[in-house]
Amino acid sequence: FSFSWQTTFQDGGEEVEDGAVYNVTLKKVQIQQAANKGARWLGGEGDQLPPEHTVRQYETSKIRAIKAGTLEKLVENLLTAFGDADFSYISIFLATYRAFSSPRAVLELLLDRFGNLETSSHGEVANLNSLESEMVLRAEIASVLRAWLDQCSEDFREPPDYMCLLKLLDYLKNNMPNSDMESRVQNLLKQFQNQEVEAVDGFCSSSSSDLVDGEELEISNPEEFFSFQDHVVAEQLTYMDVMLFRRVVPYHCLGSIWSQRDKKENKNLAPTVRATITQFNAVTKCVISTILGTRELKIQQRAKIIEKWIHVAHECRILKNFSSLRAIISALQSNSIYRLKTTWMCVSKDILLMYEELSEIFSDHDNYLTSRELLMKEATSKFANLDSSEKENHKKSQKRLQLQKNKGVMQGTVPYLGTFLTDLIMLDTALQDYVEGGLINFEKRRKEFEVIAQIKLLQSSCNSYCLIPDQKFIQWFRRQRHLTEEESYKLSREAEAAADTNILSPKSQKSMVKRISTLFLGTDVFTPPKEQPPKSSPVGGSSGESTDSASVSSCEFNHSETEDVCVTPVSSPEDPLKKGYDSDKGSVSSDKGSGSSKGSICDPGSGSDSGSSPPGDSGSVPCSAPRVLPVYNRQSGGSCIIRVSMDGLHASVYKSILITNQDRIPDVTQRALLKHNLEPDAVEDYELVQVISEDKELVFPRDANVFYGMNSHVNFDFILRKKA
């Protein structure tokens, strides 16, 4: 028989039930069969039909995917999704439900309401006899529980009581005695109980912040640093990154969870993400301290250290470690390193070209398209794909890569986590948590899962690494004293004071405020002159970008609750999308309030404004309404995303807020106060201003419409300032 299949999909509209809305898709499969071979099967003789004649059969099936629903309906759908051909639903729910519920609430609904084999009236099996009904329900429950334990066993880690795990074990003993599932849960419980309960910062055990206890910190000795081969440094950084990235719990990255970390009651929130960020910042600060920490270094010696770090970054690229690669590049682009003109002039041309090529990977052009495409291309590949534009570097790269291949050891991929955090926070900011009728917006969770799935795929790929820790290097790395922003800038000035005629100290950068009583402002923007690097100095970002926009300025602020500060690229009017760690930039800084160096990814948003709306809120939208996702720096569809920072803090420490063409100053100010964990009733005490340039601001009248009043020709960056 000769068969061919052709599948088409057709929108079947929506189905509305009590407490749930479903998207319906009709799947139509066309089966073509050659008649001269299939005629006998149809009851005829093949020679009675022309050979080219075909018989077509059609088979249509309905796919129902829940779009929005109550928590009860979403949990019930775990049991019916497979029958509705929504095969990915269970994985999506398990990866995202922490944004709107808890393990205990879901487990109670699943076992007590829908999993009671004696009283269940589950619709799918209601018409079956009692025995068959029980068998079907038992199989469905077992399937969901098995997926839960496979994909999210950490949900049950609740020391010291492990209430959910004990409840599950009790259910299995009563309903599925002596089953493999029961044995598995018992083993998991023993595993959790036998493991040492980790401290709040226990996930950081492989990063510098917790590894220096009892050891005296020291400024780097260049000779000791040069004793480590470039590939050894890269491998050890990759080893530490891999250990932390594999521990990342994906739901910790959800925008609605990660964006709440600054609140006092959430100081223990998302420890796995915090640990990864702490390691990133430790690498960045280590680079800076090795370059600036020894005052006695000559310019040529300092240049050699920069060259070595560029070689280490290249080795990280070969190992597909984009996290440490990004950290090293960010450090070399920091203000205190970037301004060392004479030092950069001593860096060899070939190594500068290598640096430029590595910097281009993280160009912010088109929402970091280069790094995103590269990550997708190499996510599951065995080795890096090194297509260097410079001939000499290409030879060296291929030689190093061939050595890796000859060893027969495959590599995973360590991503730069900030990109995923940014995407998830922007999704959380742009999409409602609830739709009309107070139903949970599950379409939002499906979009979030697309990002979560990428994180899981990369975590799986990290199992391919086969790296052995080098305790000598790790101890050296732990001992490095991290310079504060002020310390590094002071040392940089001591190293090359004469070159610094136009760059302002981080503490002396002040803007003149020009009050504007009108709602609109022209596009002419005055930008003070900045220091121009020599021709042979490094260029961050794409090779065609200006050196101003490619440079990086460090930031520092005093915030007792926050552990994030960032190394932030200097923006220019020509590059309106160049922003700080945005959860998407390298990070170097200090917590000046404590005197110790801390760091993390800056928050590009504090969660969804609308996402926090209660069910039935007037801001909710019908679930059937088409939606274009609002974005930062562009007004579209009557909405956009702005970034609001507090006066007195660095601009890179901001919250993303969704505004519409209906929002006025009091509404936006109140949401900004909430995002920054301030009293929302103090609206009258604050004013909202848009930053136009370094010496211009747009001050809005009390009842102005923010959407129409803002200047759309510059960055959508705002400051919330207490009125004088």
Automatic annotation (TrEMBL):
Compositional bias of kind Low complexity: 537-546, 586-620
Region (Disordered): 524-623
A single GO BP: Ras protein signal transduction
MF term (GO), any: guanyl-nucleotide exchange factor activity
Location of the Ras-GEF domain: 229-498
Gene3D superfamilies tied to this protein: Phosphatidylinositol 3-kinase Catalytic Subunit, Chain A, domain 1, Ras guanine-nucleotide exchange factors catalytic domain, Son of sevenless (SoS) protein Chain: S domain 1
Protein name (database record): RGL1 protein
Species of provenance: Drymodes brunneopygia
Gene that this sequence comes from: Rgl1
